[in-house]
Amino acid sequence: MTDHALTSELGALSYDPAPESAGIARLQPSYGLFLNGKFTAPSAHEQFASLNPATEETLATVALASAADVDAAVASARRAYTKVWSKTTGAERAKYLYRIARLIQERSRELAVVETLDNGKPIRESRDVDIPLAAAHFFYYAGWADKLEHAGFGPNPQPVGVAGQIIPWNFPLLMAAWKLAPALAAGNTCVLKPAETTPLSALILAEIFQQAGLPDGVVNIVTGDGTTGAALVDHPGVDKIAFTGSTEVGRLIQERVAGTAKRLTLELGGKGANIVFEDAPIDEVIEGIIDGIFFNQGHVCCAGSRLLVQESVADEVLRRLLRRVDQLRVGDPMDKNTDVGAINSAAQLERIRDLTAFGEQEGATRYTSACDLPDKGYWFAPTVFADVTQSHRIARDEIFGPVLSVLSFRTPEEAVAKANNSKYGLACGVWSEKGSRTLWVAQRLRAGVIWANTYNKFDPTSPFGGVRESGFGREGGRHGLEAYLNV
Amino acid sequence: MVDARDRGVLVPAVISVPLIHNEDELRRYVDALSGVDAVGVESRVAKLGTRSLKKSTKLRAIDLAISMVDLTTLEGADTQGRVTSLCTKAMRPDPSDPSVPAAAAVCVYPDLVAHARRVLGDSPVAVASVATAFPSGRASLAVKLLDVQDAVEAGADEIDMVIDRGAFLAGRWGLVFDEIVAVKAVCGGAHLKVILETGELVTYDNVKRASWIAMLAGADFIKTSTGKVGVNATLPVALVMLEAARDFAEVSGRLVGVKVAGGIRTTKDALKYLVLVNETAGGTWLTPEYFRFGASSLLNDLLMQRLKQRTGAYIRPDEFSGD
Amino acid sequence: MSERLDVKKTYKLVVNGAFPRSESGRSYEVATANGKFLANVAQASRKDLRDAIVAARAAQGKWWGATAYNRGQVLYRWAEMAESRRNELVEQVQWCEGLKKKEAQLSVGRAIDRIVWYAGWTDKVTQVLGGANPVAGPFFNFSLPVPSGVIGVVAPQESSLEGFVEAVAAPLCVGNTVVALASELRPTPAIVLAEMTATSDFPGGVLNVLTGITGELVSHLAMHEDVDGLDLTGSAELADELARLAAGSIKRVYRPRLNDEENPLRRLRTFVETSTVWHTIGQ
Fold this sequence. Notes:
The complex is a heterotrimer.
Chain A: E1 34-35, E2 38-39, E3 47-52, E4 57-63, H1 67-83, H2 90-106, H3 108-119, H4 123-144, E5 162-166, H5 172-185, E6 189-193, H6 200-211, E7 219-221, H7 226-234, E8 240-244, H8 247-257, E9 263-267, E10 273-276, H9 282-294, E11 306-310, H10 314-325, H11 346-361, E12 365-368, E13 383-386, E14 403-409, H12 412-420, E15 427-431, H13 435-444, E16 449-452, E17 471-472
Parallel strand pairs in A: 5-6, 5-8, 6-7, 8-9, 10-11, 10-15, 11-14, 13-14, 15-16
Antiparallel strand pairs in A: 1-2, 3-4, 9-17, 12-13
Helix pairs in contact in A: 1-7, 2-4, 3-4, 4-5, 9-10
Chain B: H1 23-31, H2 38-48, H3 55-67, E1 69-72, H4 80-91, E2 105-108, H5 113-120, E3 126-130, H6 141-153, E4 158-162, H7 165-169, H8 173-186, E5 191-195, H9 198-201, H10 204-216, E6 221-223, H11 235-252, E7 257-261, H12 267-279, E8 291-295, H13 298-311
Parallel strand pairs in B: 1-2, 1-8, 2-3, 3-4, 4-5, 5-6, 6-7, 7-8
Helix pairs in contact in B: 1-8, 2-11, 3-12, 3-13, 4-5, 6-8, 10-11, 11-12
Chain C: E1 27-31, E2 37-42, H1 46-65, H2 68-84, H3 86-97, H4 101-119, H5 125-129, E3 131-132, E4 139-147, E5 150-154, H6 162-173, E6 177-181, H7 188-195, E7 207-210, H8 214-223, E8 229-231, H9 239-246, E9 252-254, H10 266-270, E10 272-280
Parallel strand pairs in C: 5-6, 5-8, 6-7, 8-9
Antiparallel strand pairs in C: 1-2, 3-4, 4-10
Helix pairs in contact in C: 2-4, 3-4, 3-7, 4-6, 8-9
């Protein structure tokens, strides 16, 4: 047996391109708003382009909803609430939501392609994560619509009324499902404002509402930019605002809503600590770290963007991690073998570059994946900073990109202290084979979601949300109904 | 910007594997290995299962898989005639197409080794023999060693032994280790594959430990299964074994191959295994020297897929020999 | 020109995903509510019952082992099938219960909606019936509802479809498998609905339905030790005796009560067990 070189060329079998077909998307060249069950004429509105971040090409143009448009949408939602939806029994609401869930399943491939083209995430993720979870979310909440008296909120909980919902660009369809499904199940009507850079899957969802026969005005969709969102937040005809996005914008919204009667829930940013103890299952923990920060290009509020590794295994973990990072396939999101896709926009790419530059300035050791990046489009190579401490900006500020900061700790207490040393509190990970310690740590972490020996797992039955400046309110589970009931 | 390699962080781990003198030392070393999270392994396997191999990648992978097949017959009813058919097929899987690579080996019972050797002559197809009271391994060490000796003297190039699963599950790892060492000693020039019978070990932790015990004891290959029990090769088990082989190579400098056997019937399955190898242990293991499929009907499915890739049409199974 | 002669339906048992006749070869006549001949329906024997229980037991691990989401999908698909074949069910209910078409349509609509209601429970029961418990010590303690196992159901004698759905969907949605004895005089709506499990991704053995003479079969069901729970709704005057027989293996027994309308979850709760886990918390 001869001894070969020990560098065993991971990925030696190179994969030919395996592209998904963009033609499945069937996009229109331009879209109006979805008001009162119908699409308005595109020509009635100022239009703006939605780009494919992997190629910088225009996919379609969508309407920029004005304050008047927002007003019309809220009025439509109010009418639908008063005349139709508040008179629809829970069992009937359930059946509409079941139809919607089924239609999402039926059109899943089309939705996955649209999502990937518009967002830049790999088709494998849209196909295997985003779309199935969106359908599951509608299925789950459909089942609550006629069971509200069993949800622990009293014998006859009532809806709030008209909900204004503003969603981010990182999981466009899934975030729409997270907002709409519980709201509709609880008996509310909605005005949804998709993110500026990712409006398209919401518009396909509107087609699905039509196919499901959802009564006019129960859901209205106003595409647009920050001004559209502000108009919705400020509208006196809205009973409840739900916002997912940056803590920065969340503060502004909370300020504007203060003093009004509007209910508010916020799901904001995070700087998740992924805590690795010395007895963690070594190969699975590497995958978990990767999943934690490079899944969805790091555009995840609950990303495990801080790796807290026990000092006794820090070198070994880092060594294996870097070997694995080099193996990540970065490129065409429409290729089925791509692991990491494009950054969603030029603006986000610039933010990531700016924040990452701090890392080097502050003296952390930077490792960049050896991957090739395409010429066109917005790309950032997976990056790891080692020798990071809590006083570094890259350990405190949310970068929202494929950048990991690695810190170390000695004892469980120290791990907890470092993990909690943040104004955020959305999610954490804990890796250990010792159950009692995992539970001890979990009990002490200030976070709304704690993953043990896994990361970035979502389920419609499992409540998600943050503490402190990561927001308040929960989405998913029985708890997710609370925001949409007058309780 | 500091390049990772400049920092020397990608240099293999410093720990070197010690010589094992007794069961205590073996226990300490193997117990210090980290555990395996079942959910994590299975979800990694599921994700890697979505890799899409098209066109030239697929053709290359099919040919690679063919060259990695240990064409196997291990039935009580085996005869010389059966073995002749098998050997002929292994040497020339598709008589109408000489560009199809030969299989890596044939795998038979010890008393048919001499005949297989005769039929294969000096072709590059190796003769692998099962031994050590295959498949159960339930016999005295003396009998098991004689079994190996017979096969070696009859001309076997490779020996596929079974570990004592009873001893492993009873925690008698020293016994398992010693038996492998003893078998290796009588193998002479033949390379030794150690069958862990992962279906009987059940947990991934056990598969990892048994893999390390076998490699520390001198195995040239670690193999999943005899193919004779309810649960044979599975992708998660193969992943655990490939990770073990990769890590062992780093600490010992010695390369140990991995063989998956039993229940692998389709090209689709075989390609999933190759993806695992590719993205875990890497290119060094992507040769018949370090990766094998123990299979029988798999070969015809590989041939069918190969022909389909070239002609574009689904092929009638009778196009190929039923051997 | 004469009218086309129709092909008459043979009603069989539903056992283990297959549709066998009774192993006894027997059948009995079932008439419509108006007294007209409807069909010779299989008269199940205690051996059929035994086989059905074996099938239900074998299927239970797989049914409970599936995710709650998956169970919900299967039950919802059953509703889809029932909806698409609702005309057949309407006809059955008209024949068996003597309802006018309009009433029968409303009844079938309610039955389908009930399946949908139960489909939505599969992934919520745990949240409503389970939870963490704040014990006075360093332990993580949580209680979860797990299904009792195999439930024997004596379906209501009068409500041949709605009542049947209520009695079987409740135990199914929490992860039990079911052996149901259909109404003796009005068995065919249950059989037709059970046939639809074949196209709803139900694993074989999850829902088994036997037709036959109730009095012949129920005591065997009540005494069979490998049945974990018993719904005696359709056993009329035999109920007390059967409840006593069920005591022999400490079965969980469900019998109708006057306040059932206010407690829609009672059936569901009867056929789950609460399993509580303690795990230490410490460094």
